[in-house]
Amino acid sequence: MRTTDLMRYALGAVGERPGRSLLTVLGIAIGVAAVVLLTAIGEGVHRFVLAEFSQFGTNLIAVSPGRTTTLGMSGALVSNVRPLSLDDARALARLPEVEAVVPVVQGNVAVEHAGRSRRTTVFGAGPGVPEIWSMRLASGRFLPERGANPPAFAVLGAELAVQLFGQRSPLGARIRVGGEPYRVIGVMARKGQMLGFDLDDTLYIPAERALALFDRDSLMEIDLLYDRHADSTVVAERVRTLLIRRHGTEDFTITTQDQMLAVLGSVLGALTTVVGALGAISLLVGGIGILTIMTIALGERRREIGLLRALGAGREQIRWLFLLEAMLLALLGGLVGLAIGGVVVVMLGLALPGLPLQPAWDFVLLAECGALLLGLVAGVVPALRAARLDPVRALHEQ
Protein backbone atom coordinates (compact mmCIF):
# COMPACT_ATOMS: atom_id res chain seq x y z
CA MET A 1 0.00 0.00 0.00
CA ARG A 2 1.25 3.45 -0.90
CA THR A 3 1.15 6.38 1.50
CA THR A 4 -1.79 7.89 -0.38
CA ASP A 5 -3.63 4.56 -0.04
CA LEU A 6 -3.00 4.55 3.71
CA MET A 7 -4.37 8.08 4.04
CA ARG A 8 -7.41 7.31 1.90
CA TYR A 9 -8.12 4.15 3.90
CA ALA A 10 -7.88 6.03 7.23
CA LEU A 11 -10.24 8.73 5.96
CA GLY A 12 -12.68 6.09 4.77
CA ALA A 13 -12.57 4.31 8.14
CA VAL A 14 -13.45 7.58 9.91
CA GLY A 15 -16.27 8.32 7.45
CA GLU A 16 -17.78 4.83 7.64
CA ARG A 17 -18.82 5.31 11.27
CA PRO A 18 -19.88 8.99 11.40
CA GLY A 19 -21.76 8.78 14.71
CA ARG A 20 -18.92 7.11 16.59
CA SER A 21 -16.32 9.36 14.96
CA LEU A 22 -18.35 12.47 15.86
CA LEU A 23 -18.49 11.48 19.53
CA THR A 24 -14.74 10.86 19.57
CA VAL A 25 -14.03 14.19 17.85
CA LEU A 26 -16.30 15.99 20.35
CA GLY A 27 -14.40 14.46 23.26
CA ILE A 28 -11.14 15.99 22.02
CA ALA A 29 -12.88 19.22 20.92
CA ILE A 30 -14.31 19.85 24.40
CA GLY A 31 -10.85 19.40 25.91
CA VAL A 32 -9.18 21.82 23.48
CA ALA A 33 -12.03 24.35 23.83
CA ALA A 34 -11.68 24.18 27.62
CA VAL A 35 -7.95 24.88 27.36
CA VAL A 36 -8.56 27.82 24.99
CA LEU A 37 -11.24 29.37 27.21
CA LEU A 38 -9.59 28.86 30.59
CA THR A 39 -6.15 30.03 29.46
CA ALA A 40 -7.73 33.07 27.76
CA ILE A 41 -9.26 34.01 31.12
CA GLY A 42 -6.00 33.30 32.96
CA GLU A 43 -3.85 35.24 30.51
CA GLY A 44 -6.38 38.07 30.45
CA VAL A 45 -6.30 38.37 34.25
CA HIS A 46 -2.50 38.19 34.11
CA ARG A 47 -2.20 41.10 31.69
CA PHE A 48 -4.96 43.09 33.39
CA VAL A 49 -3.31 42.97 36.82
CA LEU A 50 0.13 43.80 35.43
CA ALA A 51 -1.33 46.72 33.46
CA GLU A 52 -3.09 47.99 36.58
CA PHE A 53 0.17 48.07 38.51
CA SER A 54 2.16 49.43 35.56
CA GLN A 55 -0.10 52.44 35.00
CA PHE A 56 1.97 54.37 37.55
CA GLY A 57 5.19 53.61 35.67
CA THR A 58 7.89 51.02 36.18
CA ASN A 59 10.80 53.15 37.41
CA LEU A 60 9.43 53.45 40.95
CA ILE A 61 10.77 52.49 44.36
CA ALA A 62 8.65 52.33 47.51
CA VAL A 63 10.14 52.60 51.01
CA SER A 64 7.94 51.56 53.94
CA PRO A 65 8.71 51.66 57.68
CA GLY A 66 9.65 48.49 59.54
CA ARG A 67 11.46 45.35 58.50
CA THR A 68 10.26 41.84 59.14
CA THR A 69 12.73 38.96 59.34
CA THR A 70 12.24 35.25 60.02
CA LEU A 71 14.12 33.37 62.73
CA GLY A 72 13.98 29.97 61.04
CA MET A 73 10.87 28.63 62.76
CA SER A 74 7.18 28.81 61.98
CA GLY A 75 5.60 32.00 63.24
CA ALA A 76 8.86 33.32 64.71
CA LEU A 77 8.68 36.85 63.35
CA VAL A 78 10.34 39.92 64.75
CA SER A 79 9.11 43.28 63.51
CA ASN A 80 10.98 46.47 64.35
CA VAL A 81 9.05 49.53 63.17
CA ARG A 82 10.54 53.01 63.39
CA PRO A 83 9.16 56.20 61.86
CA LEU A 84 9.83 57.29 58.31
CA SER A 85 9.98 61.07 58.49
CA LEU A 86 9.56 63.94 56.09
CA ASP A 87 13.26 64.65 56.61
CA ASP A 88 13.97 61.14 55.26
CA ALA A 89 11.95 62.01 52.16
CA ARG A 90 13.86 65.26 51.66
CA ALA A 91 17.19 63.45 52.07
CA LEU A 92 16.18 60.80 49.48
CA ALA A 93 15.21 63.55 47.03
CA ARG A 94 18.85 64.66 47.00
CA LEU A 95 20.17 61.33 45.64
CA PRO A 96 21.58 61.80 42.11
CA GLU A 97 19.37 59.26 40.29
CA VAL A 98 16.15 60.27 42.09
CA GLU A 99 13.98 62.61 40.04
CA ALA A 100 11.06 63.08 42.46
CA VAL A 101 9.89 61.93 45.88
CA VAL A 102 6.40 61.69 47.41
CA PRO A 103 5.85 61.14 51.14
CA VAL A 104 2.56 59.26 51.59
CA VAL A 105 0.05 59.19 54.43
CA GLN A 106 -3.38 57.68 53.82
CA GLY A 107 -6.65 57.67 55.73
CA ASN A 108 -10.39 57.89 55.39
CA VAL A 109 -12.35 60.93 56.62
CA ALA A 110 -15.49 62.93 55.86
CA VAL A 111 -15.14 65.81 53.38
CA GLU A 112 -17.86 68.47 53.59
CA HIS A 113 -19.02 71.43 51.52
CA ALA A 114 -22.26 73.45 51.55
CA GLY A 115 -24.24 70.78 53.40
CA ARG A 116 -22.89 67.93 51.33
CA SER A 117 -20.69 65.31 52.98
CA ARG A 118 -18.79 62.39 51.51
CA ARG A 119 -16.46 59.97 53.24
CA THR A 120 -13.46 59.42 51.01
CA THR A 121 -9.82 58.39 50.90
CA VAL A 122 -7.45 61.20 51.79
CA PHE A 123 -3.83 61.10 50.68
CA GLY A 124 -1.27 63.20 52.49
CA ALA A 125 1.33 63.76 49.81
CA GLY A 126 3.71 66.22 48.21
CA PRO A 127 4.02 68.14 44.94
CA GLY A 128 5.57 65.18 43.10
CA VAL A 129 2.33 63.14 42.87
CA PRO A 130 1.44 64.01 39.22
CA GLU A 131 4.94 63.13 38.04
CA ILE A 132 5.51 59.99 40.13
CA TRP A 133 2.02 58.49 39.93
CA SER A 134 1.51 59.47 36.26
CA MET A 135 -1.56 61.59 36.99
CA ARG A 136 -2.78 64.78 35.31
CA LEU A 137 -4.61 67.86 36.50
CA ALA A 138 -7.94 68.75 34.93
CA SER A 139 -7.89 72.28 36.34
CA GLY A 140 -5.96 74.41 38.81
CA ARG A 141 -2.65 73.26 40.23
CA PHE A 142 -1.32 70.60 42.55
CA LEU A 143 0.04 71.04 46.07
CA PRO A 144 2.94 73.52 46.06
CA GLU A 145 6.36 72.95 47.58
CA ARG A 146 6.30 74.55 51.04
CA GLY A 147 8.20 74.31 54.33
CA ALA A 148 7.34 72.72 57.65
CA ASN A 149 3.97 74.50 57.96
CA PRO A 150 2.27 74.26 54.56
CA PRO A 151 -1.03 76.08 53.91
CA ALA A 152 -4.31 74.20 54.12
CA PHE A 153 -4.65 73.50 50.40
CA ALA A 154 -6.54 70.55 48.91
CA VAL A 155 -6.77 68.93 45.48
CA LEU A 156 -9.92 66.96 44.62
CA GLY A 157 -10.21 63.76 42.67
CA ALA A 158 -12.51 64.00 39.64
CA GLU A 159 -15.37 61.97 41.17
CA LEU A 160 -15.16 63.71 44.54
CA ALA A 161 -15.38 67.09 42.79
CA VAL A 162 -18.58 66.01 41.02
CA GLN A 163 -20.12 64.65 44.22
CA LEU A 164 -19.44 67.83 46.21
CA PHE A 165 -19.77 70.55 43.55
CA GLY A 166 -21.71 69.02 40.65
CA GLN A 167 -20.82 70.85 37.44
CA ARG A 168 -19.56 73.98 39.20
CA SER A 169 -15.86 74.73 39.41
CA PRO A 170 -14.55 73.99 42.91
CA LEU A 171 -11.41 76.14 42.50
CA GLY A 172 -11.07 78.55 45.39
CA ALA A 173 -13.93 77.01 47.35
CA ARG A 174 -13.69 76.15 51.02
CA ILE A 175 -14.20 72.55 52.18
CA ARG A 176 -13.87 70.86 55.55
CA VAL A 177 -11.67 67.78 55.87
CA GLY A 178 -12.12 65.96 59.15
CA GLY A 179 -13.66 69.15 60.52
CA GLU A 180 -10.74 71.37 59.46
CA PRO A 181 -11.05 74.07 56.73
CA TYR A 182 -9.14 73.70 53.44
CA ARG A 183 -9.10 75.72 50.20
CA VAL A 184 -9.45 73.81 46.90
CA ILE A 185 -6.66 74.71 44.47
CA GLY A 186 -6.98 71.92 41.89
CA VAL A 187 -8.97 69.03 40.42
CA MET A 188 -7.33 65.87 39.08
CA ALA A 189 -8.17 64.40 35.68
CA ARG A 190 -9.94 61.04 35.74
CA LYS A 191 -7.62 58.09 36.37
CA GLY A 192 -10.12 55.26 36.75
CA GLN A 193 -9.89 52.30 39.08
CA MET A 194 -7.07 50.04 40.16
CA LEU A 195 -8.18 46.58 41.26
CA GLY A 196 -11.51 47.95 42.51
CA PHE A 197 -10.09 51.06 44.22
CA ASP A 198 -11.52 54.27 42.77
CA LEU A 199 -8.57 56.59 42.17
CA ASP A 200 -10.95 59.45 41.34
CA ASP A 201 -12.85 59.41 44.65
CA THR A 202 -9.86 60.82 46.56
CA LEU A 203 -8.53 63.99 48.13
CA TYR A 204 -4.92 65.22 48.33
CA ILE A 205 -3.61 67.41 51.14
CA PRO A 206 -0.04 68.19 52.30
CA ALA A 207 1.65 65.25 54.05
CA GLU A 208 2.52 67.43 57.08
CA ARG A 209 -1.15 68.18 57.70
CA ALA A 210 -2.18 64.56 57.07
CA LEU A 211 0.20 63.37 59.79
CA ALA A 212 -1.55 65.68 62.25
CA LEU A 213 -5.02 64.83 60.91
CA PHE A 214 -4.52 61.09 61.35
CA ASP A 215 -2.40 61.49 64.50
CA ARG A 216 0.58 59.62 63.06
CA ASP A 217 4.29 60.02 63.77
CA SER A 218 5.44 58.10 60.70
CA LEU A 219 4.84 58.22 56.98
CA MET A 220 3.15 55.13 55.59
CA GLU A 221 5.42 55.12 52.56
CA ILE A 222 7.90 57.14 50.53
CA ASP A 223 7.64 56.74 46.76
CA LEU A 224 10.62 57.59 44.56
CA LEU A 225 10.78 58.15 40.83
CA TYR A 226 14.28 57.45 39.50
CA ASP A 227 15.97 57.96 36.15
CA ARG A 228 14.56 55.30 33.80
CA HIS A 229 18.05 54.70 32.43
CA ALA A 230 19.43 53.86 35.89
CA ASP A 231 19.63 50.34 37.32
CA SER A 232 16.88 49.84 39.92
CA THR A 233 19.15 47.60 42.00
CA VAL A 234 21.84 50.28 42.19
CA VAL A 235 19.32 52.99 43.11
CA ALA A 236 17.72 50.76 45.75
CA GLU A 237 21.14 50.08 47.28
CA ARG A 238 21.88 53.81 47.50
CA VAL A 239 18.51 54.39 49.16
CA ARG A 240 19.30 51.61 51.63
CA THR A 241 22.74 53.03 52.42
CA LEU A 242 21.39 56.54 53.01
CA LEU A 243 18.56 55.42 55.30
CA ILE A 244 20.82 53.12 57.32
CA ARG A 245 23.15 56.07 57.84
CA ARG A 246 20.22 58.18 59.04
CA HIS A 247 18.50 55.51 61.17
CA GLY A 248 21.53 53.56 62.37
CA THR A 249 19.94 50.27 61.30
CA GLU A 250 17.92 48.78 58.45
CA ASP A 251 14.48 49.32 59.97
CA PHE A 252 12.65 49.80 56.65
CA THR A 253 11.65 47.80 53.59
CA ILE A 254 12.52 48.74 50.01
CA THR A 255 10.40 47.42 47.14
CA THR A 256 11.16 48.22 43.52
CA GLN A 257 8.42 48.18 40.92
CA ASP A 258 10.52 45.66 38.95
CA GLN A 259 10.48 43.26 41.91
CA MET A 260 6.76 43.64 42.44
CA LEU A 261 5.95 43.11 38.75
CA ALA A 262 8.26 40.08 38.63
CA VAL A 263 6.51 38.48 41.62
CA LEU A 264 3.07 39.28 40.21
CA GLY A 265 4.13 37.92 36.83
CA SER A 266 5.32 34.61 38.30
CA VAL A 267 2.20 34.19 40.45
CA LEU A 268 -0.20 35.04 37.63
CA GLY A 269 1.80 32.91 35.18
CA ALA A 270 1.37 29.98 37.56
CA LEU A 271 -2.38 30.74 37.66
CA THR A 272 -2.57 30.55 33.86
CA THR A 273 -0.68 27.25 33.92
CA VAL A 274 -3.02 25.79 36.55
CA VAL A 275 -6.20 26.71 34.67
CA GLY A 276 -4.61 25.35 31.49
CA ALA A 277 -3.91 22.08 33.31
CA LEU A 278 -7.56 21.91 34.37
CA GLY A 279 -8.55 22.19 30.73
CA ALA A 280 -5.99 19.51 29.82
CA ILE A 281 -7.88 17.05 32.06
CA SER A 282 -10.79 17.27 29.62
CA LEU A 283 -8.32 16.69 26.80
CA LEU A 284 -7.06 13.56 28.54
CA VAL A 285 -10.61 12.25 28.80
CA GLY A 286 -10.92 12.75 25.04
CA GLY A 287 -7.72 10.73 24.54
CA ILE A 288 -9.21 7.87 26.56
CA GLY A 289 -12.23 8.08 24.27
CA ILE A 290 -10.00 7.59 21.22
CA LEU A 291 -8.35 4.56 22.85
CA THR A 292 -11.76 3.05 23.57
CA ILE A 293 -13.08 3.65 20.06
CA MET A 294 -9.96 2.26 18.40
CA THR A 295 -10.09 -0.84 20.61
CA ILE A 296 -13.72 -1.43 19.62
CA ALA A 297 -12.81 -0.85 15.96
CA LEU A 298 -10.09 -3.51 16.22
CA GLY A 299 -12.64 -6.10 17.38
CA GLU A 300 -15.02 -5.22 14.53
CA ARG A 301 -12.42 -5.22 11.75
CA ARG A 302 -10.44 -8.39 12.44
CA ARG A 303 -11.54 -10.05 9.18
CA GLU A 304 -10.81 -6.86 7.28
CA ILE A 305 -7.28 -6.80 8.74
CA GLY A 306 -6.84 -10.47 7.88
CA LEU A 307 -7.84 -9.76 4.26
CA LEU A 308 -5.38 -6.87 4.02
CA ARG A 309 -2.59 -9.07 5.36
CA ALA A 310 -3.53 -11.84 2.90
CA LEU A 311 -3.35 -9.34 0.05
CA GLY A 312 0.20 -8.40 1.03
CA ALA A 313 -0.07 -5.59 3.56
CA GLY A 314 2.79 -5.77 6.05
CA ARG A 315 2.60 -5.47 9.84
CA GLU A 316 4.08 -1.97 9.65
CA GLN A 317 1.36 -0.83 7.25
CA ILE A 318 -1.38 -2.26 9.50
CA ARG A 319 0.10 -0.37 12.46
CA TRP A 320 0.12 2.87 10.48
CA LEU A 321 -3.50 2.36 9.41
CA PHE A 322 -4.65 2.45 13.04
CA LEU A 323 -2.23 5.20 14.08
CA LEU A 324 -3.32 7.44 11.19
CA GLU A 325 -6.99 6.91 12.01
CA ALA A 326 -6.43 7.80 15.68
CA MET A 327 -4.35 10.87 14.80
CA LEU A 328 -6.92 12.00 12.24
CA LEU A 329 -9.68 11.85 14.87
CA ALA A 330 -7.48 13.82 17.28
CA LEU A 331 -6.60 16.42 14.63
CA LEU A 332 -10.24 16.96 13.68
CA GLY A 333 -11.15 17.23 17.36
CA GLY A 334 -8.38 19.77 17.94
CA LEU A 335 -9.47 21.96 15.04
CA VAL A 336 -13.14 21.81 16.05
CA GLY A 337 -12.17 22.59 19.67
CA LEU A 338 -10.08 25.55 18.56
CA ALA A 339 -13.04 26.92 16.60
CA ILE A 340 -15.48 26.36 19.48
CA GLY A 341 -13.08 27.91 22.01
CA GLY A 342 -12.50 30.93 19.78
CA VAL A 343 -16.22 31.52 19.30
CA VAL A 344 -16.91 31.18 23.04
CA VAL A 345 -14.11 33.64 23.90
CA VAL A 346 -15.45 36.20 21.39
CA MET A 347 -19.05 35.81 22.58
CA LEU A 348 -18.00 36.02 26.24
CA GLY A 349 -16.01 39.16 25.48
CA LEU A 350 -19.06 40.76 23.85
CA ALA A 351 -21.42 39.69 26.66
CA LEU A 352 -19.04 40.71 29.49
CA PRO A 353 -16.87 43.59 28.25
CA GLY A 354 -15.35 44.03 31.71
CA LEU A 355 -13.98 40.48 31.78
CA PRO A 356 -10.30 40.49 30.70
CA LEU A 357 -9.82 37.87 27.98
CA GLN A 358 -6.60 37.31 26.06
CA PRO A 359 -5.91 34.10 24.07
CA ALA A 360 -2.73 32.42 25.31
CA TRP A 361 -1.37 31.28 21.97
CA ASP A 362 1.41 29.20 23.47
CA PHE A 363 -1.17 27.17 25.41
CA VAL A 364 -3.41 26.94 22.33
CA LEU A 365 -0.52 25.52 20.30
CA LEU A 366 0.33 23.19 23.17
CA ALA A 367 -3.27 21.97 23.29
CA GLU A 368 -3.29 21.26 19.54
CA CYS A 369 0.02 19.39 19.73
CA GLY A 370 -1.21 17.60 22.85
CA ALA A 371 -4.33 16.47 21.02
CA LEU A 372 -2.23 14.99 18.21
CA LEU A 373 0.09 13.33 20.70
CA LEU A 374 -2.87 11.90 22.60
CA GLY A 375 -4.25 10.50 19.35
CA LEU A 376 -0.89 8.90 18.58
CA VAL A 377 -0.53 7.40 22.05
CA ALA A 378 -4.15 6.23 22.17
CA GLY A 379 -3.71 4.47 18.85
CA VAL A 380 -0.48 2.65 19.74
CA VAL A 381 -1.96 -0.29 21.68
CA PRO A 382 -4.77 -1.06 19.17
CA ALA A 383 -2.26 -0.65 16.30
CA LEU A 384 0.21 -3.11 17.86
CA ARG A 385 -2.55 -5.62 18.55
CA ALA A 386 -3.85 -5.27 14.98
CA ALA A 387 -0.36 -5.81 13.53
CA ARG A 388 0.11 -9.02 15.57
CA LEU A 389 -3.10 -10.64 14.27
CA ASP A 390 -2.64 -13.91 12.42
CA PRO A 391 -4.19 -13.34 8.95
CA VAL A 392 -5.55 -16.92 8.62
CA ARG A 393 -7.31 -16.88 12.00
CA ALA A 394 -8.58 -13.36 11.40
CA LEU A 395 -10.16 -14.37 8.09
CA HIS A 396 -12.02 -17.31 9.69
CA GLU A 397 -13.48 -15.23 12.55
CA GLN A 398 -17.17 -14.41 12.40
TrEMBL record:
Domain (ABC3 transporter permease C-terminal): residue spans on this chain: 278-391
Topological category with respect to the lipid bilayer: Multi-pass membrane protein
Keywords for this protein: Cell membrane, Membrane, Transmembrane, Transmembrane helix
Pfam families per record: FtsX, MacB_PCD
Segments traversing the membrane: 21-41, 267-299, 320-351, 363-384
Domain named MacB-like periplasmic core: residues: 21-241
Compartment(s): Cell membrane
Main localization of the protein described in the UniProt heading: membrane
Family per record: Belongs to the ABC-4 integral membrane protein family.
Protein name: Peptide ABC transporter permease
